[in-house]
Design goal:
Elements: E1 3-4, E2 13-14, H1 18-31, H2 37-49, H3 53-60, E3 64-65, H4 84-89, H5 92-105, H6 121-128, H7 138-151, H8 154-167, H9 173-186, H10 191-200, H11 205-217, H12 227-236, H13 243-253, H14 263-276, H15 286-307, H16 309-321, H17 327-338, H18 342-357, H19 363-377, H20 381-392, H21 400-413, H22 416-431, H23 435-451, H24 453-457, H25 460-464, H26 475-490, H27 500-511, H28 516-533, H29 550-567, H30 571-587, H31 592-610, E4 611-614, E5 640-643, H32 645-657
Parallel strand pairs: 2-3
Antiparallel strand pairs: 1-2, 4-5
């Protein structure tokens, strides 16, 4: 008929096209005087031939085309041909008998692993049954396949179940779905293949609803690694009429808090596992696989809300109507904001603001979400940052702090790229000139410098850019700005040292200005720099002489002298300088050498400017009589001194009059 059978384990050869081969076999059988009994004889001979495992394997492999001399059909042989058994299955009079033979042979190989080359005989047998042009007795085939499922090992069960949509005709889909639904309740190991198969079957709406309800009921008990498939099946079988109900039930049953262990327990599990296994076996964190499963689950939700408008609307309604919010609510809001739909994006932003304003979503939930799901949330960083920016610039003071929390947690939980974006965002808010927005952004930057100094030092060049936008900042905001810049530039982290020269240039430029506004900026900035340069390092507490190097002490002294000389001509500037110094001494811990130097300098200035020796007469003409009051010196002292208030006031009044 055109097929050459091999006696070894090599593939059978074929010299004609498979259609020609099938027609020849069918014609020979029909012409036989023993027809139809010859069909059973043919099957008996085939069974005897494939009794040998190598021959059976050859009959399952595609035939190799080859030319046969004198055969006019050889020119039509294509480069790919089906296996011998697959071609025999295409002959309708033999199909049922061949199927019975294959399914009877399958149990013989159930316990065998994959053969050399990774080929599994049960898998090859099942593949023979896929995509047949016509199944003669589909009902009988479905019965036999389900009988095999009931006795086969798990791997074979999975293979059969996932192949059912490709084997059975549409007329059998509802019947097989009912059986799979029943099996789903009995065997959780088969959850994924059953749901994969059910997703590909053509089911009636009533049966589909029944199956979905059964799947929803078992959601809490499903294995974590199976969760993405379960959620995908539930969402992809939703209709517009029941979307709200299904999403509401899914939200209630999807307890993500139980899916990912807290970091402390993850570390504990790793230690327990490492005691009984080598380091190579525990190189993957315990929480990695669980976070991967949660990520895949959220990807299923993301796919559903992106391509099904009814699903996205249902999620928005369900979250808006809820009062007891959980991690899933925040994550879904981030997902909805990440979609291309403007309606979903605006809806997610509106609901988040509403829930924050009413106190139903608080910072504790946000912190827990970042702590346990940072790996999951990394994929939605752009949406998280956009929402944080929207909250931070909101005119509603109730939601602004929550936007700050989102910025801070994003910086501490994510990688360097995200950290850079967060710093850039906060710098933009500072440069906006909007009062509340500027204050919150500066407070966040100051907090991050204290909490993560090494990381923040890497992005000091971005923060330095705020120096170009100081015109719109208040004195208090300028104080915060120079406080964080000086900590970055002169702190113990060397990464920020490259902006020291820039800061000195800015300070000198501002101090030399004759405009009071800019001179004020220079004074505030210089004192903040002194506070960072002269900070008392805890590790040097035992050294009472101080921990500053002579070079640093020289720079601090020079900077203070520069501020002093720049403010001498303006009483307002001088007053601000002493005010800032007093605030620095009160609020900071300075090196003892610097404290002593500042004390000596201020005392000398006070004595030179305000303290005079008091004689019997007070020279000068005044608007009212001058006298010494309050007994500054004891009566027994030889020389008297006084604070020279009235003469100084009189001189100033006279100068103004002139």
């Amino acid at each position: 008929a055109g097929v050459t059978l091999k006696t070894d384990d090599s593939s059978n050869g074929i010299a004609v096209d498979q259609v020609v081969f099938q027609k020849r076999i069918q014609r020979q059988l029909q012409k036989s005087p023993r027809y139809p009994g010859v069909l059973q004889e043919f099957i008996t001979g085939l069974e005897a031939y494939i009794e040998n495992p190598d021959r059976f394997r050859s009959c399952l492999l595609p035939c190799v085309p080859h030319l046969s001399n004198g055969d006019s059909s050889c020119s039509s042989v294509s480069s790919f041909q089906e296996s011998l058994l697959r071609m025999l299955l295409g002959i309708e009079m033999l199909q049922t008998l061949i199927i019975n033979t294959l399914l009877e042979k399958l149990p013989e190989f159930m316990s065998d692993g994959a053969a050399e080359g990774g080929l599994s005989i049960p898998h090859m047998i099942i593949n023979q049954l896929k995509w047949l042009d016509r199944v003669v007795d589909a009902k009988e085939l479905s019965v036999k396949l389900m009988e095999l499922v009931s006795v086969a090992p798990v791997e074979v069960q999975r293979d059969i179940i996932t192949s059912l949509p490709e084997i059975l005709e549409d007329s059998q889909h509802n019947d097989i779905a009912r059986q799979l639904n029943a099996l789903l309740q009995e065997n959780t190991q088969l959850t994924v293949p059953i749901l994969d198969s059910l997703s590909s079957l053509s089911l009636s709406s009533s049966l589909l609803m029944k199956v979905r309800e059964a799947v929803m009921a078992m959601l809490a008990a499903v294995q974590l690694e199976d969760l993405p498939v379960v959620v995908k099946f539930i969402l992809h079988t939703v209709s517009a009429s029941d979307a709200n109900e299904v999403v509401c039930n899914l939200r209630k049953k999807l307890e993500l808090e139980q899916c990912v262990l807290p970091p402390v327990l993850q570390a504990s599990q790793i230690r327990i596992k490492s005691k009984g296994a080598g380091a190579a076996n525990v190189s993957t964190p315990a929480g990695g696989s669980s976070q991967d499963s949660v990520t895949l689950t959220l990807d299923c939700i993301k796919s559903a809300v992106r391509f099904q408008k009814t699903i996205s609307e249902a999620w928005l309604k369900v979250i808006e109507s809820a009062d007891d919010h959980r991690v899933i609510d925040l994550l879904v809001l981030f997902i909805l904001h990440a979609t291309n739909s403007n309606q979903s994006r605006r809806g997610a932003e509106r609901i988040l603001k509403l829930k924050v304003r009413t106190g139903l979503i608080q910072e504790a939930l946000l912190q827990r979400t970042f702590r346990d799901y940072s790996q999951v949330m990394r994929g939605y960083f752009s949406s998280i940052l956009a929402l944080a920016q929207s909250l931070l610039r909101s005119p509603d003071p109730c939601v602004v702090p929550f936007g700050g929390h989102m910025h801070r947690h994003s910086f501490t939980a994510f990688d360097s790229y995200c950290q850079q974006e967060v710093v850039g965002s906060l710098v933009t808010h500072v440069c906006s000139g909007v009062g509340g927005e500027v204050d919150m952004a500066l407070d966040l930057l100051c907090g991050l410098v204290l909490e993560k100094p090494s990381e923040m030092a890497l992005y000091s060049v971005f923060v330095k850019g705020i120096l170009d936008y100081m015109d719109n900042l208040t004195p208090q905001q300028i104080r915060k700005l120079f406080s964080l810049l000086s900590k970055l530039a002169f702190g113990q982290q060397q990464q920020g040292s490259h902006i020291q020269d820039d800061m000195h240039i800015v300070i000198r430029k501002q101090l030399s200005s004759t405009v009071p506004k800019y001179k004020r900026i220079g004074i505030i900035g210089a004192v903040m720099i002194v506070g960072s340069m002269a900070a008392f390092r805890p590790k040097a507490k035992e050294s009472q002489a101080g921990s500053l190097s002579q070079e640093t002490l020289r720079q601090v002294t020079a900077l203070l002298e520069l501020v002093k000389s720049s403010s001498e001509s303006s009483p307002e500037a001088a007053a601000l300088y002493y005010d800032e110094l007093a605030n620095l001494i009160y609020s900071s811990s300075l090196d003892p050498q610097v404290q002593e130097m500042i004390g000596t300098s201020v005392l000398d200035d006070f004595q030179d400017d305000f303290v005079v020796d008091l004689g019997p007469d007070i020279p000068g003409s005044f608007l009212f009589p001058a006298c010494a009051m309050y007994n500054l010196d004891d009566e027994e002292s030889q020389g008297c001194i006084a604070v020279n208030l009235l003469p100084l006031l009189a001189n100033e009044t006279q100068n103004k009059g002139e």
